[in-house]
Write a structure and sequence with these properties.
The complex is a heterodimer of chains A (141) and B (103).
Chain A lengths: L1 E9 L3 H14 L6 H22 L6 E9 L2 E8 L7 H4 L16 H8 L2 E7 L3 E9 L5
Antiparallel strand pairs in A: 1-2, 2-3, 3-5, 4-5
Helix pairs in contact in A: 1-2, 2-4
Chain B lengths: L1 E6 L3 E10 L1 H17 L5 E12 L1 H16 L3 E5 L3 H9 L8 E2 L1
Parallel strand pairs in B: 2-3, 3-4, 4-5
Antiparallel strand pairs in B: 1-2
Classes of the chains: A alpha+beta (141), B alpha/beta (103).
C-alpha cells in the first residue's frame, strides 16, 4: 500500500508522546509487530527530542514530521528550523553530548541507527536539521 | 509517569509506571532523588520496569544521573523486568555494566 502524511507541532516535550502515537497509528495498516512498532516509536521519540532540546534550545519553534508508506517500507522525516548541528560527525557518535551537565546519555542517534534500517541526517548551522529514516515492516498478517 | 516505592532494610524498590521521556524526566529525577535521600542507609536501589510502557535515551540519562548520586553514598543499582524494547535500549547503551539486570 501507499500512503503519506505530514504534521507540524510546537517544540515542547509534551508533543513527544503525540508524535509517537501519530506514527504508531499511521503504521497500523502495515500490521507491524509489537517490536517493530516500538522500534519506530523509539526512533521518532529520539529525533523529536533532539529537535526540541538541541534544535530549539532557547525557545519554542516548529517541528515537522512527515511519513510515507511505500509498499512494506516506511520513510519518516523529522525536521526543525533550529540552530543546526555544529559537528555532525561527533553528534552521530555514541555517548557524544553537548549537554553533559544535564544528565544526557548521548545515545539518541545510536538508538535511531540501531532501530531503523537506514538513517540520514542533514544539518546546517542556523537553518535546521532533518533526520530521514527508513524501515521495512515485515507484516505478520 | 507514575512512580511507586517500596523499601525494606536493604533495598529501595522504584516502580516506574508509564512513559519515561523528555516530558516526564524532570519529575522522575526529582521524585527518585528525594526517595534516595529519604532511604540513605539502604544498600541497593532496584528499578522495576514491569509497568514502564516506553523509554527512550532520555531515560538512560535519568538512570545515569541516579547512578552517580547513588555511587557517592555507596548504593548499588539494579534493573528488573524491562520490556523487550526497553531492554534493547539498556543493552545498547551499556547500562547493564553499571546497573546489572536481576530477575
Amino acid at each position: 500500500m501507499n500512503n503519506k502524511m505530514i504534521i507540524k507541532f510546537d517544540s515542547v516535550s509534551e508533543n513527544e508522546r503525540f508524535a509517537r502515537n501519530v506514527i504508531a497509528s499511521f503504521l497500523l495498516p502495515l500490521n507491524p509487530s509489537i517490536s517493530e512498532l516500538s522500534d519506530v516509536k523509539t526512533a521518532v521519540s529520539e529525533a523529536v527530542t533532539n529537535a526540541i532540546v538541541h534544535g530549539y534550545p532557547n525557545g519554542v519553534g516548529e517541528v515537522t514530521m512527515s511519513a510515507e508508506i511505500d509498499g512494506d517500507e516506511v520513510h519518516i522525516a523529522i525536521s526543525d528550523s533550529g540552530v543546526g548541528i555544529e559537528n555532525l560527525e561527533s553528534a552521530l557518535k555514541p555517548f557524544f553530548t553537548t549537554k553533559p551537565d544535564e544528565e544526557r546519555s548521548g545515545m539518541g542517534f545510536t538508538i535511531i541507527q540501531t532501530f531503523m534500517d537506514d538513517v540520514r541526517v542533514i544539518s546546517s548551522l542556523n537553518s535546521g536539521t532533518g533526520v530521514n529514516m527508513r524501515k521495512k515492516i515485515n507484516s505478520v498478517a | 509517569m507514575e512512580i511507586n516505592y517500596a523499601a525494606d532494610r536493604k533495598s529501595l524498590f522504584v516502580y516506574l509506571d508509564g512513559e519515561l521521556d523528555e516530558y516526564t524526566a524532570k519529575q522522575a529525577k526529582d521524585s527518585i532523588d528525594k526517595k534516595i535521600d529519604e532511604n540513605i542507609f539502604v544498600k541497593n536501589v532496584v528499578f522495576d520496569f514491569s509497568k514502564a510502557s516506553f523509554m527512550d535515551s532520555t531515560g538512560i540519562g535519568v538512570l545515569l544521573g541516579r547512578y552517580k548520586k547513588m555511587k557517592k553514598v555507596g548504593m548499588n543499582g539494579f534493573i528488573r523486568n524491562p520490556s523487550t524494547s526497553i531492554n534493547k535500549i539498556l543493552q545498547i547503551s551499556g547500562l547493564y555494566e553499571i546497573m546489572p539486570k536481576i530477575s
